[in-house]
Amino acid sequence: MFSSLRHLNALRAFESAARNRSIAKAATELHVSHSVVSQHVRNLEEWLGVSLFERHSNRIELSEDGKHLEPQIAYGLQILSDACDNLLRLSQSGTVNISAEPAIASRWLRKKITEFCDQHPKIECNLRSEWRTPSIDEDQVDLIVHFEERLLRSRTESDRLFPIDGFPAMAKSKLDPNFEPEAEGNLVEFPLIHDNGRHIWQHWFTEFTKEGKRWKEGKVHSDLSLAIEAAVDGEGLVLADNIICGKELASEQLVKVDDRTIRCTWYRVAIEENAPSNSAAIVLRDWLVTEAQKEDFAI
């Protein structure tokens, strides 16, 4: 075993070249030169006494011996990587103070943080829900989750999580059994519910209808969470989405009444600029970005 591990760098070079079917791509992936990867592969071939690749003028292909070796090496390297990642995850420690927009805080982020803490038992996460965007260097906040347009004005380093793709929805109890979602004009009779201004409904009506002033009607709530609750209570139409409003749509507390959908905004996650690469905030940020990529948000 120890004799084999002396060739660990050569095994990594072989696995990358085999997976990419390219010495050049392997060199880029491993951040070394083309000649280094080539030398590693040659050293491995000399040690094993076989040719692992069939070399052509501008490409390589796995030999029969290479085809036999490649999946076993890939599996072994993955085991090593997983073992190190698991130990690192269990040993990482620290406290992360999180400020989040109310709707994502209660409807997505809270459960995700619980999962994160289960996986990272030495990292403590404190979540507070608030509409305002705090100053990350003055309000004892390490990580902020909020709408893109609000975070882009702050002095932070931020990444996108997922968008809000909004479509008209309302309480099923308020719908006539004969309601036809596709019928033009059927939405006129229902009040509109706005969150933090009227601009999103304005965008929807401008995009899809000729009702130029309809968006000016209806109640304005201070945040998205309140607007969703108002719609569930039967107060009117809200621009719902499949992620933040997923629970209400699944239980039919809210039902989609029009398929026409607009991208309202994005949620972003932000941390302090130039935060240490091993900080608990960066660990959580990277984990949340990965989790968000699992969401189905294509319009």
How would you describe this structure to a colleague?
This protein is an alpha/beta fold and 299 residues long. The chain folds into three domains: 89 residues, Arc Repressor Mutant, subunit A (Orthogonal Bundle); 98 residues, 3-Layer(aba) Sandwich (D-Maltodextrin-Binding Protein, domain 2), CATH 3.40.190.10; 103 residues, D-Maltodextrin-Binding Protein, domain 2. The chain has eleven helices and eleven strands. Strands 3, 4, 5, 6, 9, 10 and 11 form a seven-stranded mixed sheet that branches. Strands 1-2 form a two-stranded antiparallel sheet. A two-stranded parallel ribbon has the order 7-8. Helix 2 crosses helix 3, helix 2 packs across helix 4 and helix 3 crosses helix 4. The radius of gyration is 26 Å and the shape is elongated.
**What's the CATH class of the largest domain, please?**
Alpha Beta
How many domains make up the coordinates? 3
Structural class: alpha/beta
Number of strands: 11
**Cα-atom radius of gyration:** 26 Å
Helix content: 40-55%
Largest sheet: 7 strands, mixed
Proportion of strand residues: 15-25%
CATH topology of the largest domain: D-Maltodextrin-Binding Protein, domain 2
Q: Kindly, what is the distance between the CA atoms of the first and last residues, rounded to a whole number of angstroms?
A: 52 Å
Number of helices: 11
What do the pLDDT scores average to?
A: 86
Succession of helices and strands = HHHHEEHEHEEHEEHEHEHEEH
Poorly predicted ranges: none
CATH superfamily of the largest domain: Periplasmic binding protein-like II
The general outline is: elongated
CATH architecture of the largest domain: 3-Layer(aba) Sandwich
